[in-house]
Design brief:
single chain; 968 residues; mainly beta; 3-stranded mixed sheet
């Protein structure tokens, strides 16, 4: 039907079809005219005008430009208007309600259209220009949120927001709040979006994250006390025994808040902490068995087993604490997941499931539809096209109107439809935290608000440590610290027992350069023991260099001097009883020898070893420790399954509609037979030219391919690779065998290998080549596919804008004119013989002619330092802050004092990063454990030389074992 009115019953539908047939067949014109006149007469007797004014006026013209009797087509707007209302220029004008006109189509006299009688509640409505009759009322379908783009097309409202309709397209606004995805949030108080979208506050062990004025904070659980941002048990922590910063002396343990020689019964010594293994959440059942606290709750330990206790208003569901009144994955009860509609998201309000449709789609029942193309909701919700017709431009037509084409029973635009991109059946893969896009027939991705596309994945550049601030910028943790990304900048947090001194993390109890406090060095003949400079170490400590350490607990000297415990993903190196053990970082759980996030890991969802099942027509996901599914394009999530609501008789049109016995589902509508060109295959109406389950014939099922979505095009099976994967060998049996997000030989695409030019070790992350460089070169460009990679393209040994590493600007340091790179030593900022460069503000200072370093009041500064005024003296300063200690350089990027002898993020020069997880020793990048050498080709580590061994080949410094077992 080409007019836009939703049927109200069987008799009305029959009448509409009779009218429609009369208009199409000119031979029955006179009969139709008599019928209309009869209706008008009956309406006059009852005090009501003819229903034709509301039936036709303001509706779209037919595909052939026709309207019903008494109406003509205003071609400038493609709308039916009353005959005689068009002036010479062709634009509509108002006429008297009782005016009559002649038909411009046939020359016959047309029936009069009467005005609505006063007091007639059931009478048809005559609408003004631009308005449409919906349920007896005149509405603006371009702005009405209940009829947006068509009658009954409802714009959904997010929690905390308001729905809006702009130009017939649904959207929403967030007064006083910020839109994040499909929700409205308050970033000043929401710990999950603190300060901005996608910026969750870190949850500390034994505490909860808070957000106040957009700044993250910590709230400690009962029995724990806040000490320097961490929640500690002062009853057992040897670094905070009885009170914060109350350190037990060497050889002593912390037992019930006091330092003693042994633990009180029945407590157990776990690295100097006396704990009850039956109750301690950090040592539940064993010293190396911490419990993980969920969001909106805290961990508990009872009888040596971990559990959780949820905050008030939150329920425990699969180890997570959820608000069942608003959680779509647990709406009203644990495990009661709301169905996710195609082109929208599931919502939960007051424990009742709902939907929020994407922009451009409207809610028709429980589905999100495009009323301009949906044959079951063509122009308005519930308005179904007759068999043999399609929906195009909001009208039921015989053929698809350009630029759309016919695909699987409906009209689509292959230039923009992700489910049919470039051709029918060619589906684009969607990334996590985003959706697939199709532009000019080419697949792409669109990331959720607050995220950015790096290659074919979506990342939050504000918090992601592998893409911090910009794509490919990796945060590297210096020794004895963990690193994170906050507000787009790398943030270093020292491990427990270590303090930040001039940009490095040191143990002030044993560091001879910072003994007891920062920049307090011991004499050459002295050692640092328990924070004091002495001649000898105490009996329970060992002298390692100038430090006195306990080799039973020191991860840098575990068991013997110089043996450093290797790091591991999501873990902190720990030494217990002289042996290295795995200690997982907050938010990660120890599963075997690995530290994983059981909240999001599909292989360990909710608990170790729990694998989420792989659904048909979708991919598994894990959210809040509960398995879920993400459906492929063209499929909807119904009760945990991915189904086609266009053809499934058990979910016809939406998840809840079941066709009656003997009926089939055709284009989302229950009917007695399948409409051409669809075929009945086991009571499902499918297009065998595009359906991968019935490709060519009902019995032909296209095979599953690894990392791909099955397709059927032209009755032939094929597949489309998932986002970030590619078919590079051309063998259908192997599917999409290459992960272009991480494969250095196919980084970002099949023919795109990471360049080895000036590269120490190849690496690919998110489809970008992030290779580590040989000394004196830097990887600053990192071009995206399909542009070829250029390796480590920037020579940085004498580049003042990039000295030693990307963006380490000598020009931003020093006094007028800034410093210069490489005048005295390559990869190092110096004053280049100019006294002026050393003077900031009113300070005095000179440039030492031999070292090319600044000298302030007789003191020779470290590289990168300049002179600032302090009282009557001029002192050395790093970026106008405190001066650096011995063996350190002042860096502009990464900012601060860096020990380039041992800092893997600035190894040998500011910003010269080692390969992932490598250590820095003597200004050279070295491995300390075999797993660090594995870049896809296994390998072992020669800990004596710090070089990787690939098969029988010992690699050059800094190289790892790539795929095929080769150094690179």
């Amino acid at each position: 039907m080409w007019f836009s009115k939703q049927g109200t019953g069987t008799q009305v539908a029959k009448q509409q079809r009779r009218l429609h047939a009369g208009w199409r067949v000119r031979a029955l014109w006179r009969g139709a005219l008599r019928f209309v006149l009869g209706i008008g007469a009956i309406a006059s007797l009852s005090g009501c005008p003819s229903s034709l004014s509301s039936e036709f006026e303001g509706k779209a013209c037919s595909a052939t430009g026709d309207c019903g009797p008494g109406f003509v087509c205003d071609t400038s707007r493609n709308l039916c208007v009353r005959a005689g209302s068009l002036p010479v220029d062709g634009s509509a004008q108002d006429t008297a309600p009782d005016s009559t006109s002649e038909s411009h189509d046939s020359g016959h006299e047309e029936p009069q259209v009467e005005a609505q009688a006063d007091g007639c509640d059931e009478c048809p409505v005559a609408c003004g220009e631009g308005q449409t009759v919906c349920s007896g009322k005149c509405v603006e379908i371009k702005t009405d949120i209940s009829n947006c783009g068509g009658c009954g097309a409802v714009c959904t409202t997010p929690v905390g927001g308001v729905a809006v309709c702009v130009g017939g397209q649904c959207s929403f606004a967030c007064p006083g709040l910020v839109p994040c995805g499909s929700s409205c949030v308050d970033p000043s108080s929401d710990p999950k979006q603190c300060g901005g979208c996608g910026q969750p506050c870190p949850v500390p062990p034994n505490g909860a994250a808070t957000c106040k004025s957009g700044v993250c904070g910590t709230s400690c659980n009962q029995g724990f006390q806040a000490c320097v941002g961490a929640c500690v048990d002062v009853g057992s922590d040897p670094k905070n025994c009885g009170a914060c910063d109350a350190v037990c002396p060497a050889g002593k343990v912390c037992s019930i808040g006091g330092c003693s020689a042994t633990c009180a019964v029945p407590l157990t010594n776990c690295g100097g902490a006396c704990v009850d293994l039956q109750k301690a959440v950090e040592h539940c059942g064993g010293c190396d068995s911490p419990c993980t606290s969920p969001v909106h709750g805290h961990a508990t330990c009872a009888a040596g087993s971990c559990d959780v206790s949820c905050d008030v208003g939150f329920a425990k569901c699969s180890g997570a604490c959820v608000d069942a009144s608003v959680d779509p994955a647990n709406c009203g009860a644990c495990g009661k997941a709301c169905d996710v509609p195609t082109n929208g998201t599931a919502t939960c309000t007051g424990s009742v499931c709902g939907i929020a449709c994407n922009a451009g789609f409207a809610a028709c029942g429980s589905s999100c539809v495009d009323t301009s193309l949906d044959p079951s909701n063509c122009g308005a919700c519930g308005l179904t096209c007759d068999p043999g017709k399609v929906c195009s431009g909001g009208q039921c037509t015989v053929t698809c109107l350009p630029p759309t084409v016919f695909c699987a029973g409906k009209c689509v635009n292959t230039d923009s439809d992700p489910a049919n991109c470039g051709k029918c059946g060619s589906s684009c893969g969607a990334p996590a935290d985003g959706k697939a896009t199709c532009t000019a027939g080419v697949c792409g991705i669109s990331c959720n608000p607050g995220l950015a596309a790096c290659g074919m994945e979506c990342f939050n550049l504000s918090i992601h440590p592998l893409h911090c601030g910009t794509c490919g910028h990796v945060c590297v943790a210096p020794p004895s610290s963990t690193v994170s990304c906050a507000a787009g900048a790398c943030k270093v947090v020292c491990n427990a027992g270590y303090s930040s001194c001039a940009g490095s993390c040191v143990d002030m109890l044993s560091d001879p350069a910072n003994c007891g406090s920062c920049s307090k060095p011991c004499a050459t003949s002295e050692v640092c023991s328990n924070g004091s400079c002495t001649l000898n170490c105490s009996a329970d400590q060992t002298k390692c260099g100038g430090s006195c350490v306990n080799t039973q607990s020191d991860p840098a000297n575990c068991g013997t001097c110089g043996f450093a415990c290797p790091g591991a993903p999501n873990a902190t190196p720990t030494c217990s009883s002289g042996k290295c053990v795995v200690s997982c970082n907050p938010g990660f759980t120890k599963c075997g020898t690995a530290c994983v996030d059981v909240v999001t890991d599909v292989h360990n969802c909710g608990s170790c070893g729990f694998l989420c099942p792989d659904p048909a027509n979708g991919t598994p996901s894990c959210a809040a420790g509960t398995c879920d599914v993400v459906c492929n394009a063209g499929f909807s999530k119904c009760g945990g399954q991915c189904v086609s609501t266009a053809s499934d008789p058990n979910h016809c049109g939406n998840c809840n509609t079941v066709c009656s016995a003997g009926q089939v589902c055709s284009s989302g509508v229950c009917t007695a037979f399948c409409s051409p060109p669809l075929t009945n295959c086991s009571n499902k109406c499918v297009d065998t030219t595009t359906d991968p389950d019935h490709c060519g014939t009902c019995s032909t099922v296209c095979a599953d391919r690894p990392n791909a979505v099955r397709t059927c095009s032209g009755s032939s099976c094929g597949f489309t690779c998932n986002a970030g994967w590619a078919d590079c060998d051309g063998n259908p049996a192997t599917g999409c065998e290459i992960d272009t997000k991480t494969d250095v030989a196919h980084c970002g695409g099949c023919p795109r290998a990471c360049s080895a030019s000036k590269v120490a070790s190849l690496a690919c992350s998110g489809g970008l080549c992030v290779s580590a460089c040989v000394f004196g070169w830097a990887n600053c460009g990192q071009p995206t596919a399909p542009q070829a990679d250029d390796g480590c393209e920037k020579k940085v040994d004498v580049d003042s804008a990039n000295c030693g590493g990307c963006n380490n600007s000598c020009q931003a340091q020093g006094g007028p004119g800034g410093f210069v790179c490489g005048q005295n030593a390559g990869n190092q900022c110096d004053c280049a013989g100019s006294d002026t460069r050393c003077r900031i503000g009113q300070a005095s200072g000179t440039c030492d002619s031999e070292d090319m370093l600044c000298r302030c009041s007789g003191t020779l500064c470290r590289p990168g330092e300049a002179c600032v005024k302090s009282g009557s003296y001029s002192i050395c300063a790093c970026n106008s802050g405190p001066a650096c200690g011995i063996d350190k350089q002042c860096c502009q990027t990464p900012s601060g004092c860096r020990n380039v002898q041992i800092d893997p993020a600035s190894c040998g020069a500011c910003g010269h990063a080692c390969p992932p997880s490598f250590a820095c020793a003597g200004a050279a990048c070295v491995c300390t454990a075999g797993w660090q050498c594995d870049a896809g080709g296994g390998g072992t580590c020669d800990v004596d030389s710090g070089a990787c061994i690939c098969g029988t080949t010992t690699c050059n410094a800094g190289k790892r074992c790539q795929r095929g077992g080769v150094c690179g």
